[in-house]
Amino acid sequence: xxxxxxxxxxxxxxxxxxxxxxVKKLTGLGLTVAVETGAGEGASIPDAEFAAxxxxxxxxxxxxxxxAGIVFCVRAPLGPGEGDVDQLSAIPHGALLVGTLNVWEDxxxxxxxxxxxxxxxxxxxxxxxxxxxxxxxxxxxANLAGYRxxxxxxxxxxxxxxxxxTAAGTVAPASVFVIGAGVAGLQAIATARRLGAxxxxxxxxxxxxxxxxxxxxxxxGVETEETRTAQTAGGYAKEMSEEFRRRQAELMAETVxxxxxxxxxxxxxxxxxxxxxSAEMVAAMKPGSVIVDIAAxxxxxxxxxxxxxxxxxxxGVSILGWRNWPGRIPVAASALYARNLLxxxxxxxxxxxxxxxxxxxxxIVQGVALTRGGAVVHPQFADKTAAAA
Length: 389
Ligand code: NAD
Fold this sequence. Notes:
Elements: E1 2-5, H1 20-28, E2 32-36, H2 47-52, E3 56-58, H3 61-65, E4 68-75, E5 96-100, H4 108-115, E6 119-122, H5 137-156, E7 164-166, E8 169-171, E9 175-179, H6 183-194, E10 198-202, H7 206-214, E11 218-219, H8 225-228, H9 242-256, E12 261-264, H10 279-283, E13 290-293, E14 310-312, E15 318-320, H11 330-347, E16 349-350, E17 355-356, H12 363-368, E18 371-372, E19 375-376, H13 379-388
Parallel strand pairs: 1-2, 1-4, 2-3, 4-5, 5-6, 9-10, 9-12, 10-11, 12-13, 13-15
Antiparallel strand pairs: 7-8, 14-15, 16-17, 18-19
The protein binds nicotinamide-adenine-dinucleotide (NAD).
Residues 128-130, 132-133, 136, 138-139, 142, 179-185, 202-205, 208, 235-237, 240, 265-269, 274, 276 line the site of nicotinamide-adenine-dinucleotide.
């Protein structure tokens, strides 16, 4: 069976869905791996390294996809009119497509996969269960995003993170406040601590408080009856009530004005990011402060974030609202992402038949499978696509 890997063509996407290491293992399963020329460029992997690992280098998307039974991607393939190449229409009927397909933002695409007979698996929907941890693309990518956010904050900040006692005087340590202590936020806390900053953090899920403390940071948060049940069965935060948001805003207003750096990572699965930092709070911050909003792809946690841009406010606060934070550390992000996809495929690989066998009754398959045999099978999207129709 042939597995095709396309060059990612969405703006700013530097990652790739396989590495030479995973190509070797995929060929070991009995697959022929076809990689489009230049697919690894953004992640510093030349064609020659893919070829040395056993991949066939295809000159264009059509050549890579011809006869493919499996397609690996980082982001959803471009459809008709979305770019210079229509990747979607070139995917053969019956192929298994695996990637982060961004279906919450673009549920209409699910129907397009079904109409083309593509069996699509959206890895961002993977259940947060122990067995799925090594396939968890959200975790592997968020962890790197959290690290990268702090490094970019340190670059943007005109002072230092650690306290420095020098003959010319003492430089105070930076105060870093991390909003949202999930995978990205916890890595941001750890990274800021390693750089010597004073770190505090907030979250709504009760478990986060101890996790924040265990990393040596201070917990700052509103704790109410509502926060006791603020975590869904899937491990995600719930959308909070109006009353909670009001109390959180009061606490944030007090906390934020004392900070040098804010790292915003708060998300609620499938919804726009909660707005936690208002324009007034930013106006009360010191000149030279930095806000890094990794929630920018979901609209951002700060009211002044412009997704995809760096903004400097009239009072001199820089807000980095870049999209796709994992894509800003593409070599490491590709290595982990490629292993996540390899683990997923290997877990559902029929060694005898040398083909995938995604058992519909498996909890992981039920979580990620959008379409099968021309029909939308994911309950959440079956409703949405019916509504769109
Ligand atoms: P996420 O990216 O959905 O959200 C980031 C953080 O923002 C979360 O900690 C969330 O509680 C917080 N948040 C949301 N709304 C907020 C608000 N209004 N104010 C403050 N904070 C807010 O989360 P994630 O990083 O994907 O992690 C989600 C959960 O999944 C966590 O419980 C994590 O420990 C768990 N997890 C489990 C596994 C596993 O067992 N396989 C793997 C990864 C993550």
